[in-house]
Amino acid sequence: MAEVTLRRADDLTDAERTAWRGLVETLPEFDGPYFRPEFTEHVAAVRDDVYVAVLSVGGEPRGFFPFQKHNRVGRPVAGRLSDFQAVVVSADVRWTAAELLRGCGLRSWQFDHLLLGQSAFEPYHWFVGESRFLDLSNGFEAYEQERRAAGASDVKNTLRKERKLKREATCRWEPRADDDAFERLLAWKSEQYHRTGLADVFSYPWTVELLQRLRTADTPGFGGAFSALYADDELLAVHLGMRSGNVLHYWFPAFGDAWQNCSPGLVLLVEVARHAAENGISRIDLGKGDERYKLQFGSGSIPVAEGVVERASVSSLMRFGWQRTKAWVKESPLACAARGPARLLRAVRERSEFE
């Protein structure tokens, strides 16, 4: 059984960081940027509650579990901003969820984008969803042909709108957007959150500071991806994401009111995908959700689970029952009537989780 040692994220040794990077670079299931030690370190630079449990065998670090800790409750690093979660560990290392939490000093650990495949967490899954992605392993043209064959009309229509936009304006895609584009990204996304009743991610200073750090991060294994689309020098759309190896995570896209008939947000996604494929990116992760663009542009998916690891108690059973009730309501004729209150409750929950 692996030995669990708890460290603050900024107290990892050089040997531990090297071992962590070695795992994510050799185990394909951990190829995304959220699993990199650099992501955890950037979050730790703007928050003081980030820890890493090191799983060791025979004194050698063989696994890493990053998390945020408030009292004895654990959450994923970056909380609601995290689109993938897991213990980064080799399959041959023996560990249990109970021993892991005990070593971390946690009563519970909540997750909502947990990779499937780690058997220690399977009993704690509430739901399993799909995180969609663009498969660019054979290039952009092959991806486009696959989407056309699958009947994804939005992809075809977006390419048509892109051609229209380029006929009527001088367009350019900037792979390294500037400070003004970053400020516009914050403003556009805040407007979207307020309009939809969701918690404004950017009303919390640590999230803005984190994105400021990530947009300029640039190392061989990890970095930010910050691009913008212009028409006649007018900013139409902007995206801030992260890259890791041959994977790009499409994270914060935003667009303004100009050229809405040309769907600038979707045109930006096409431009990002085209340039990504030309520069060795084989997959663009879109994250979990049933938004139309994810269903239309996603050509594959990764299953992720939502749930909580905690000791058996009345509270945990009540929580499980509540989650099951929500699932039933969502699929029932009551869904429309419940949507308004559910959106309000979600906003309250999100605000508490960004603190």
Q: Which segments are poorly predicted (pLDDT under 50) over 5 or more consecutive residues? A: 313-320
Report the portion of residues in β strands: 25-35%
- CA-based shape: globular
**How far apart lie the N and C ends?**
35 Å
CATH level-1 class of the largest domain: Alpha Beta
Which architecture name of the largest domain does CATH use? 3-Layer(aba) Sandwich
Radius of gyration: 21 Å
In a few lines, what is going on in this structure?
The chain has 355 residues and is an alpha+beta fold. Helix content is 41%, strand content 28%.
Describe this structure in words.
Residues 313-320 have low confidence and may be disordered. Strands 1, 2, 3, 4, 5, 6, 7, 8, 9, 10, 11, 12 and 13 form a 13-stranded mixed β-sheet that branches. The chain folds into two domains: 3-131 and 303-354, Aminopeptidase (3-Layer(aba) Sandwich); 132-301, Aminopeptidase. With 355 residues, it is an alpha+beta fold. The chain has helices at residues 14-26, 37-44, 97-104, 140-149, 153-168, 179-196, 205-216, 264-278, 292-297, 314-331, 335-354, and strands at residues 3-8, 50-57, 60-70, 73-75, 88-89, 108-115, 125-135, 171-174, 223-231, 234-244, 247-255, 283-288, 300-310. The radius of gyration is 21 Å and the shape is globular. 41% of the residues lie in helices and 28% in strands. Strand 9 and strand 10 (234-244) form a beta hairpin. Helix 5 (153-168) packs across helix 8. The protein has eleven helices and 13 strands.
